[in-house]
Design goal:
By secondary structure, the chain is an alpha/beta fold. It contains 12 helices and 16 strands. Bound molecules: thymidine-5'-phosphate.
């Protein structure tokens, strides 16, 4: 197949999304790359074109903590409860972050893999068995020297961050028991296209998976998806239940249902992605006009949740400190720093009403429900939010 990889969206020059800038580095040149999104007509994978090595992105300065969101903690606690019913002897988590998931289990039953040593240390200090290394066949073999094969492998928002999927699945085959289950949660491509959440793409999100593309990548390694659950988390994700093909668990009816849905929406066709790119360009125009109108009327705008996703939106739409006074964010490692590329100051959580804020740009739109609940008073007093998904608009009570 000629020209099997087609670029369909250019989100411009972008900094590395989690590279929040320290005050002393504010005038230093930032590392940038061109964020281009492409579609592989052969294997149906949607990915970013220019990638960085894992070592460049996931180091000992990594700011993201899964536990900062109540929604995420609750979501993983609920899953842990379901997994306990399966009575697995040993659970391995790839990308265990600050232990948000494994903390729900007996320490002896879990193994965590988290290459960002600053985050891994949090769980390790509490006595969890964690490896501060990148997931690879070499690591899988190393773990096998100390432990038996595992019955359950879980990975949330991590597999889509690793470029070499063949190595990922080779490593899974080494350590997963023949009757074991591998569960992946990652943003859903279908939901991303439907909700125009183009900010699912940034340097760490190398892929946004569909069932169609992920299953193809797995089958090369004699693995297959046997059940899918659609989740609300992160603006729409899928939980994929995966088994070794040899294991004769029956395919759940959700497979046929989901496959039909993706095919019907056109996830196999280039035109679907070209149309999405057109909507993204319009979204930029509309969002900028909302910001410009607010500023024309001398309104004060702040950002809520300096997410990695919002880095894509801000840099693509050229929204900087002249439009947003500052961001508030509960993550300590982001506070007193500046947003990558657009250099907007990040402060700790503050009272929106006392700060006399007119509009709040919702960077953490994926936690809208949790945030709107928390900010009832601000909304009740006439406060307004600006969102970009599913299309740019102002939301009031
Ligand atoms: P994420 O979208 O990459 O998960 O990041 C969410 C960010 O939003 C994280 O830095 C914490 C921040 N946040 C707040 O500041 N306040 C909140 O109420 C929530 C839910 C998240």
């Amino acid at each position: 197949m000629k020209n099997k990889i087609i670029n369909f969206l250019d989100l411009g020059n972008q900094p590395l999304a989690n590279s929040y800038i320290k005050n002393k580095n504010i005038n230093k040149k930032e590392r940038k790359y061109r964020l281009i999104i492409c579609f592989n007509k052969r294997n149906k994978l949607v990915s970013i074109k220019n990638t960085f090595s894992s070592k460049d992105m996931f180091d000992d300065q990594y700011p993201y903590r899964s536990s900062t969101s109540k929604t995420m903690s609750f979501h993983l606690k609920k899953l842990a409860r379901d997994i306990k019913k399966l009575r697995p002897e040993k659970i391995l988590e790839i990308g265990s972050n600050d232990g948000c998931f494994i903390k729900n289990f007996d320490k002896k039953k879990t193994i965590g893999v988290e290459p960002c040593s600053n985050v891994e240390r949090i769980t390790n200090k509490k006595g969890y068995n964690t490896y501060s290394e990148y997931w690879s066949p070499k690591l899988a073999k190393k773990i096998l020297k100390k432990h038996k094969k595992v019955n359950l492998i879980f990975s949330s928002n991590t597999i889509s961050h690793i470029e070499n999927l063949d190595e990922v699945f080779k490593a899974i085959n080494i350590i997963l028991d023949e009757k074991g289950i591998f569960i992946i949660e990652d943003p859903s491509l279908l939901e991303c296209l439907k909700k125009n959440t183009y900010d699912q793409f940034y340097n760490e999100h190398i892929y946004v998976f569909s069932y169609l593309s992920l299953n193809k990548a797995l089958k090369k390694h004699n693995l297959e998806i046997f059940k899918i659950e659609e989740l609300k988390i992160h603006g729409g994700s899928n939980r994929y239940f995966i088994k070794k093909i040899k294991n004769n668990i029956k395919l759940h009816k959700s497979i046929k249902f989901h496959k039909n849905k993706e095919e019907k929406y056109g996830l196999k066709n280039l035109k679907t992605y070209v149309d999405f790119a057109k909507r993204v360009k319009n979204s930029k125009k509309k969002l900028l006009s909302i910001f410009r109108n607010c500023k024309k009327n001398n309104k004060k705008i702040v950002g809520y949740g300096a997410t990695a996703k919002s880095v894509t939106v801000l840099n693509y739409c050229n929204i900087n400190n002249s439009m947003i006074d500052y961001f508030i964010d509960t993550t300590l490692d982001k506070q007193n720093k500046y947003t990558p590329g657009t250099k907007i100051p990040i402060k700790g959580y503050s009272d929106l009403i006392n700060d006399k804020v007119d509009y709040v740009f919702l960077g953490a739109w994926n936690f809208k429900k949790e945030i709107f609940n928390k900010e009832k008073k601000y909304l009740k007093n006439g406060g307004k939010f600006i969102v970009h998904t599913p299309y740019p608009k102002i939301i009031s009570k």
